[in-house]
Every structure is written in C-alpha cells, then in structure tokens.
Amino acid sequence: MNHNIKSIRPFIGAKNFEVSRSFYRDLGFEEIVLESNFSVFKSGETAFYLQDYYDKNWIENTMIFLEVDDADRYYKELLALNLTEKYGVKLTPTRHLDWGSECFLHDPSGVLWHFGTFKK
Description:
Number of helices: 4
Distance between the termini: 28 Å
Structural class: alpha/beta
Low-confidence stretches: none
Helix content: 10-25%
Radius of gyration: 15 Å
Mean pLDDT: 97
Shape: globular
C-alpha cells in the first residue's frame, strides 16, 4: 500500500457541548462550526472533531496523544490557563520516562489527553 496520508482526525464526544467548546478554544484551538452539534478544532495541520454526543463508557475510555515540542513547557502553559479552576478538570504534571516526557489533562467530559515529547 502506498499511503499518502494528509491527516488523522479523531472524533470525541462531549457531556456538555458548550463547555467543551469553550475548553478547547481556551486551549488555543481554532473552532470551525460544521453543524450546531458538531465542530472541528484545529491547530496548524492537526485537528479533531467534537460532537454533542456523550456515552460514558466511550468517553471515559478515550485517550489522545498529542506530540508537542516541549512537554514541560506545555504543562506550565496549561497550568497558567487555570483550567482546573475554570472547568474542574484534572491536570497531571509532566513525568519523564525512557521514551520521553508527557503530562496529562482530562477534558470536561473525561477524555484523557497525553501531551508528550519523544526523546530523539
């Protein structure tokens, strides 16, 4: 197979669509509304879909890994956004492992985001 992949865009759900939309805009993603209950959030060439749909088992078992250039700096920037106070979400400090570094952030619905940097 010859893959000429241009992007991969996961679909995630939202327990409270408006709160999740605000959360992702606060994270610096650009929102493009596709329908009243469906948006795409972009940062450069990276994007994901947010839908006004919630299934507890699905959402609480969804994890997304987003590779960033510096996990420590990214954690500090996340901390500065006061997301835990504003949205009641859980932010876990950076941990350093053999393969690289990552911090964790649960979104308002329970989706677990890994923000990581691989060792070179």
